[in-house]
Amino acid sequence: MNPFIEIITQPDNIAIVIMIIMVTFFTLWAFQQAFENDRLIAAGKPVDGENEGLVDTFKPLVRIELIIALAVMVFLTFWSIVVDAPLEEIANPTLTPNPAKAPWYFLGLQELLVYFDPWLAGVVLPTLIIVGLIAIPYIDINPKGNGYYCFNDRKFAVITFSFGFFILWLLLIVIGVFFRGPGWLWYWPWQEWDHARVVFEPTRDLSNVFGIDSRSLPGFIIGAIVVNGYLIGGMILPYRYLKDKMPEFMKQFGLIRYLVTASLFITMMAIPVKMVLWLVFHIKYIWITPWFNV
Amino acid sequence: MTTENKNNSSYRVYLFVFFSVLLFILTLWVVWNDEFGLRPWKKYQNEYKSLKHAQLEKDYQKAQNDFTKSGDSRTLARLEAQLKKAQDQFNSSEVQQKYRKLSTQWADVHAEAARNQKELQTARGLYLETEYYFTKTQKAGYKKKMDDLQKRIDAVSSKASSLQKQEESLKASLAPFTSGIADIQAEIEKMKSPLEEKKERIATSDKVPVEIKQVYIRDVDKADRCQSCHIGIDGSRQISTKQPFTRHPASFVFLKNHDPEKFGCTFCHRGQGRATTSVEKAHGNVKHWDEPMLEGDMTQTSCLSCHGDVKHLRGAEHIAKNTELVRKYGCYSCHKIPGYDGFGDVGPVLTEVGTKVNYTWAVNWLLDPKNYFATARMPKFYFKQDEAEAIADYLFSMSGTTRHDADYSADTPDEKLVEQGRSLWSQARCNLCHMTNGKGGNNVKVYAPDLSKVGSKANKEWLFKWIKDPNAYFPGTKMPRFRFTDEEIKALVEYLVSEYQDDEAEMKYPTPSEISSASIKKGKDLILKYGCYGCHKLQGMEEMVQVAPSLMSQGVTFLKGEEMREKIGAELTSIGSKPIDMLDFGKLQKAIPNDRLSYIKQKLRDPRGYRLGLRMPDFRLSETEINGLASVLYGFTDNNIPSRFMVPSRQELDKIAGVPSYKFTGDFAKIINDVKCTNCHTIKGIGADYAPDLSVAGSKLQESWIRNFLANPDVIRPLLQQMPKLGLTSGRAPAKITMPKFNLGIQNVEDTNKSDVDVVLNYFQQELVTPDIPKEIPVITTLAIEEQIAKGKELYDQKGCRSCHQLGNDGGALGPNLSNVGNRLKAGFIFKHLENARKFKPDIVEPNYGFSERERIYLTNYLMTLKLNAK
Q1: pLDDT 10s digits, B591-625
Q2: Nearest residue of B to residue A78 by CA position?
Q3: From CA B15, how far away is CA A65, in angstroms rounded?
Q4: How many CA atoms, within 13 angstroms, populate the side-chain half-sphere of residue B207?
Q5: Distance from A70 to chain B by nearest Cα, in Å?
Q6: Residues B260, B304: Cα–Cα separation, whole Å
Q7: Complex ipTM, two decimals?
Q8: What does the DSSP 8-state code read for residue B712?
């Protein structure tokens, strides 16, 4: 059987198929509403849900939630009767399965392991994701868009979230589920998995490009300069730019909010940067330290 | 609130109701699924119970019918009439009046006695309490109270005994009223009880709960629930022949020796013993379960897990036959296999092969051994012509010879010599081991080569040397040394070469031709690559030997000569449990099922099929052989079975106990090595089972008879011994088989002046004896010997011995001919043999007649008179 069809029909992956369909549907719906509202706002017309003030919780919300909860329970019960929990072979401590894939919802994180030191990919980045999500209400001071969808008034927020969620989370999950085969090698859906496949892809560290051993002191210094330069520069340069262009906003926003937002943002952007360095320039690590590698 | 909102809420109510109902239905489904859907074994158990019920019910009905038909039912009717009459009599008012009066009296006395007993208990209790206080306080008041109580106790107990007497006498006078009825009732009960018991059995079997039946084997941490469906597997009766209700086939072998409560099922059958939700899952025929259930003969592969020796194991015939294949093809020469040691011992020695065979023959043989004869064991290596030549070049150069062919096809043979050779050929029974033109070769396990074309293969000089002393060319060969004179050997060689010529044989090098050193180098490389040294002894390519621990401590790990070799194949010790991912299916990944058994079978079918560069040669096995070998290999597992399950072979036990394995000693060992008795006979556990076991021959056979037999072998058992063997080698014409004549007695044993016959006889008398067989039989003094013989003859006729044994021209052919038994066997052996024939030959067909000692003495005395006079 075609490996793609085999993967997609596996009981494990029913959830991800549902996820793809639902995410696509709701995203399109939300953006359609957002653009519709933008048009209304541009035309100076009132938007449904804008400035509604206080509304009842119970009738419009809790009742619907109850019905949805029932529907979801019906679906989950039916699913659990009809589809057995998919088991794999008996665990053998001396023989790990290849590929060893995490549960589908963690495959995005697992995919990060290709590009990052395990400590970063497995500990730092997930922590920052949670911290960042918690911080959103405190750093988002834009009053627009409460109670309705819009795009023009919240361009930065919507784009940043979409990038982080769709690309860095969902796309990586999809890659992990459908495009990774034995040896965590890339397999297109029409390619057969081959356990004996050999791929030779040498990588190097950044300072090796300049002929400096990345584990030596000069290599360490170069790495430190580049990484810290990225972090500090990534905060200072936009700050100066924004202060210049949007002094009003920056005053309202404040330095602390800016620093939190900027550090979260550039950390997020470090992921695609690192991927490009790896995939295009075959650079594995930028900065080698005795404790972790970046 | 607008109307729209109202509509909306009613719409929501419908949705709420809809989903609530759906959830309720689903909940019911969950309950049903949990109770029945996921527990198919309940259905089977209930079905089994109803089948069993029906069977027991039938038993009961049958018993009832039998009872009705038999005379018992009339007896019962009569008894019942009697009972009625007795009861009527008892119920008549006159009797009743008396009876009631007496019973009222008895009831009064009985009640009084009960009250009295209560009083006694109270008094005793109070006494014990008072005694306790007195002991503790030593107050006189308690003492007085104790005395009073003691008086009271005495009074009450004397009253009790008088009441008991009254009660007994009343009871005795009541008894006659009912005793008649009770007797009849007891008799009726007795008649009915077998029926009642049958009825009871139905009730008991109906009460057996429907539940998971699990066997847990702690030692191997296996939990089997197979008997939840296979509920009748260990039953005492066959309830149904339908699966899963049948009994285990041949359970008197398998289950009797492997109690299912201790072994479970998956121990032998594999499969997924814990699974209970579907047949496929339980049988392990699901993805990711690497051990599908074994059925039928294939199950015998599991015998190998514990049994060190399956050769003589009942119920393991299939696997025993197949383990022979490992020996036959010498798998252990290249692969490490548990229980099989050996290196360079499957094929003949090749150190001097150049002096033996024709060069062209050698090349052709290397190209395809089956072209020379169809039953050749050597596999095909798919050598190209130049490769085969290179190997032959290397071998010939090692023998110090050049490319040459000895062509005798044009010679005119000396007819007289050939005729003499022909008669020697049949006299020495060469055909017993060697096949020629599709005939003979019945002793298959010595794997003697087919000689149909030997005249085009080997040269005369070599044949002469070979027949004269096979051990000189090939130490350890199975070929015996017949004590032929040089003239006889010459005649035999002449016969072989002239009679067994291959007309189509091509001789490329009638004149010798030199060998190039490049070719020799190439041949050597090929030999090293394909590991020819695994089967053939080759100079400088002996097995690598691990050194003694003392040397190891000095840093020496191997006594490794430049070209000493290890087995080149993959280790097969645990091939039967090797993880699937570690089996390389290569280009057949998609073509065949990815399981172990399929892998093994495909490897045997096409050894080089999985990928490029594989070296295993093609044995061109038949599908039966493939299945057989696969079932053996599948049994090599590392499943950590605890030692208490292990049944080591005799040899292993001896090794553990430190008992040295039996070795032939002295001059007899030389004769064994010379004549190869163990090619056919087993002696003290060594040797083949083609001819009778000689381990206790010294206690069994008379010396003079052995001497005569060796000089002139004759058929002893016309059918018993030979026929089954012939059946195994289908397609070959049965020959009248007797032991070959080895011409013993002509020569002395090497380095001594003892005649070899004397050595053999001496060894028989000294070594091949057992204290179990008495030298003499007990003597009966009260009866004249003639009468004893007459009684023995009577017994012989009476027990029908003649239906199997032949006497003169009369009798059956299943057992040995007894016409000359008085000259052949020792009396002690006959005497012991008649007691229990199976003691010395467990698979003998002779029934055990349970003769008394006297009868055995009579029979022995009679049989000892059966002698043919030497001609």
Answers
A1: 898 889 999 999 999 999 998 889 999 999 999 99
A2: B26
A3: 12
A4: 6
A5: 6
A6: 18
A7: 0.78
A8: S
